[in-house]
Specification:
Number of helices: 8
Shape: globular
Pfam family, one: GDT1
Transmembrane segments: 34-55, 67-85, 131-152, 164-182
Structural class: mainly alpha
Distance between the termini: 36 Å
Number of domains: 1
Order of helices and strands: HHHHHHHH
Keywords: Membrane, Transmembrane, Transmembrane helix
InterPro entries: GDT1-like
Family: Belongs to the GDT1 family.
Number of strands: 0
Largest sheet: none
Strand content: under 5%
């Protein structure tokens, strides 16, 4: 139980204010389907953190950090551009061909690559030597933190115009990308 609780608390706290929490907010505002988004976050995190717990150290030894740095920075810049592209018809259920669940799953999976919560999962798995409980705890921590953004994000977006949320989120993604390049 200690492994599950420690993994949950560490990731739940680390995720507060993180880029994927911003992504959850934007997806919640865009799709207005909180359970689809939460399910996508669950699947993406379970896969991502499961792989991180199993293969994180191996990947970090295989791929030089400079390549990972550039890949992560490029990912953030791509998110910054993507967030500024308006949908053709946001009222149309089929406006995104993948829908809320698959879009959330794919974006969260890739956004978590190299993230502090993914790296925390690697460290926790190495410390506790229990892939199942660590993966469960970190996944539940992600669901808790991002679930807050999904549930309360809709209330926020009803008061703030969506275009301003897109502009600010895009800027934050650019800053994350630049920060990765500068610190890498």
């Amino acid at each position: 139980m200690e492994i599950l609780l420690n993994s949950f608390v560490l990731v739940a706290i680390a995720e507060m204010g993180d880029k994927t929490q911003l992504l959850a907010l934007v997806l919640a505002a865009k799709y207005k389907k909180p359970w689809h988004i939460i399910a996508g976050i669950f699947v993406a995190t379970l896969l991502n953190h499961g792989l991180a717990a199993w293969a994180g150290e191996w990947i970090s030894k295989l791929v030089p950090m400079q390549y990972l740095t550039w890949l992560l920075a490029f990912t953030f810049f791509a998110f910054a551009i993507w967030i500024l592209i308006p949908d053709k018809d946001e009222s149309n259920e089929g406006s995104m061909r993948w829908g809320a669940f698959w879009t959330t799953t794919v974006l969260f999976f890739f956004a978590e690559i190299g993230d502090k919560t993914q790296l925390a999962t690697v460290a926790l798995a190495a410390q506790y030597n229990n892939l199942l409980l660590v993966t469960m705890g970190t996944t539940l921590g992600m669901l808790f933190s991002n679930g807050l953004a999904v549930v309360f994000g809709e209330k926020l977006t009803s008061r703030i115009p969506m275009k301003w949320i897109h502009y600010v989120t895009s800027l934050i993604y650019v800053l994350f990308g630049v920060g990765i390049l500068v610190s890498g």
